[in-house]
Specification:
With about 250 residues, the chain is of the alpha+beta class. It is built from five helices and 16 strands.
């Protein structure tokens, strides 16, 4: 299957976002091990069947390269400072808009269990890209389809915030290796999705988050707020990237 993916000159961009178990091979972590129905291809975010229908329906092309899959999409960067990432985190962009990111972390050699008391002391999985791979910057890369791309293109000051018309934005979480010649090179971590925090609905949470992060005074690269009990990242100030940003998902 690895040879199959490597032979293709172009693939649907959605392949990098399907709810399937990917290869753990450098440059091919975007590629599913199989496109068949199997227990490994089921997750909290759906299964391979629903994902493949999305691949067929929204076939924006991407280019396989030795370092990974080259594609264009918007994203939200944030620095972890060696803080582990759990199932959820709050990230603020430059326009002071907060987003709630949900990560579907699969069990693996680089994951650690933690107890989330918010969900009734349930045990969940975390990953620390800084410790595991040496990456202190992480990004949520949005899955832009022709549908949500046309829906989201507005004259917004913040390019990522233009996606806020959508109730939920699917995507992936990646660790950032480097940025070179306008391309952000990354390592795929897991599937994820995020939603915008609305003042009318989340006023109490937003007041708390603004207080923790000095009501806009904190900037990108500031230390994140971590859970005092389990140590996972709770909230952090991020940086938005526009829909034409080039990513290499390795």
């Amino acid at each position: 299957m690895q040879k199959f993916w490597q032979m293709l000159p172009r693939v649907p961009m959605a392949v990098a976002f399907v709810a399937a178990e990917p290869f753990d091979t450098p440059g091919l972590r975007w590629a599913p091990r199989t496109l068949l129905m199997s227990p490994a291809n089921k997750s909290d975010f759906g299964d391979i069947g629903s994902s493949i229908s999305d691949v067929v329906s929204h076939a924006t092309a991407a280019t396989p390269t030795p370092r990974g899959l080259l594609l264009n999409s918007s994203g939200l960067l944030f620095a972890t400072h060696f803080t582990p990432i759990g199932q959820t985190a709050f990230v603020r962009d430059e326009g002071n808009t907060w987003y709630h990111i949900f990560s579907n972390i699969r069990k693996g050699p680089d994951t650690q269990p933690y107890v989330c008391e918010v969900d009734g002391a349930e045990t969940k999985l975390s990953i620390n890209p800084g410790v595991a791979y040496g990456y202190q910057e992480v990004a949520f890369v949005a899955h832009l389809t022709q549908h949500n791309k046309s829906t989201s293109l507005t004259k917004s000051v913040n390019p990522f915030n233009s996606l806020s018309r959508l109730p939920e934005i699917p995507g992936i979480l990646v660790g950032i290796c480097e940025e070179k010649d306008g391309i952000i090179y990354t390592r795929r971590l897991c599937n994820a999705h995020c939603s915008k925090m609305e003042p009318a609905i989340h006023s109490a949470n937003l007041s708390y988050l603004d207080c923790i992060h000095q009501r806009g005074a904190a900037t990108y690269g500031s230390m994140p707020n971590a859970d005092p009990k389990n140590g996972t990242l709770v909230s952090v100030v991020g940086m938005a990237k526009p829909h034409h940003q080039r990513w290499c998902i390795g």
